[in-house]
Amino acid sequence: SYELTQPPSVSVSPGQTARITCSGDALPKKYAYWYQQKSGQAPVLVIYEDSKRPSGIPERFSGSSSGTMATLTISGAQVEDEADYYCYSTDSSGNHTGVFGGGTKLTVL
Amino acid sequence: QVQLVQSGAEVKKPGASVKVSCKASGYTFTGYYMHWVRQAPGQGLEWMGWINPNSGGTNYAQKFQGWVTMTRDTSISTAYMELSRLRSDDTAVYYCARERAVVGATAEYYFDYWGQGTLVTVSS
Q: Considering A79, A95, A108, B27, which has the largest number of Cβ atoms within 10 A of its Cβ?
């Protein structure tokens, strides 16, 4: 079955740039979506279609994709950005079958 | 405003079944696919499958085929997820999430609204 691979953890100091990667064989053909999940809360979409930012999401969040890797970048990370981040994509079957990456714990301190 | 309100926490014994509901409001229920996602304690998000509320068609992740059933009742704008033959490792928070399709792209979508989650605990 299709898999997306993320690093388990990323750590930065406040104000630094955090980069979280997501690799998957179908990413050259499929979009990546990124969700932020804070403890005890439902996930929130922060990036869609590789690089678009929903309204209400701070400009410091950006996304990109090249080849089999998508990247979520948080420029000038804030303490409040500390959370788990998950990439999501669909496989190439055309059946709407989806998969989440394993998640990355972002620590900002 | 769009809301997805899920049923309350459940405690089940191994081997039993559980049925979680997700009541939608604030939009046309039949116009958007509904997905189910679960999260075991301390673990990541796991996509389970979707239901098309208009047709009742479903697509389940391979892991859950034969084990999960997703249904809907359009008269009350509610989607259901039933998991059978529960085991202790099915203990998780189960979320419903509304699909927002990407215009002009095949099988591309994201989740724009989520339910609050339902904790299902499987314990003898």
A: A108
> Rounded to an integer, what distance in angstroms lies between the CA atom of residue B53 and that of residue B32?
7
- What whole-number distance in Å separates Cα of residue A67 and Cα of residue B85? 41
The two tokens of residue A108 are 């900002």
Least Cα distance to A27 among A90, A81, A102, A97 occurs for A90
Query: What confidence score (pLDDT) does residue A65 get?
Result: 97
Q: Which of A44, A38, A46, A92 is nearest to B97 (CA)?
A: A44
SS (H, E, C) B18-72: EEEEEEEECCCHHHCCEEEEEECCCCCEEEEEEECCCCCCEEECHHHCCCEEEEE
Q: DSSP character for A25?
A: T
Residue whose C-alpha is closest to residue B102's, from B93, B113, B111? B111
pLDDT in tens, A8-34: 999 999 999 999 999 999 999 999 999
pLDDT of residue A94: 72
CB A88 within 8 Å of CB A101: yes
Residues of B with CB below 8 A from A84's CB?
A: 44
Please tell me if residue A98 touches chain B, with a CB cutoff of 8 Å. Answer: yes
Locate the chain A residue with the closest alpha carbon to B104.
A49
Nearest residue to A73 via CA among A3, A22, A4, A5: A22
